[in-house]
Specification:
mainly alpha
């Protein structure tokens, strides 16, 4: 294997990962949908 091959690959990976994490932090968070109950608590008691 070439000298420093794995080290260079690891450095490139770390750079790409840091860029991705930085971009991810600035992405807007999508609101979650609230689950709708098909029956109310009163209907369950009947």
């Amino acid at each position: 294997m070439a000298d420093n091959y794995l080290e260079r690959r690891r450095e490139l990976y770390e750079i790409r990962k840091a860029e991705w994490l930085k971009k991810k932090r600035h992405m807007p968070v999508k609101p979650r949908k609230a689950k709708e109950s098909s029956t109310t608590s009163q209907e369950r008691d009947i």
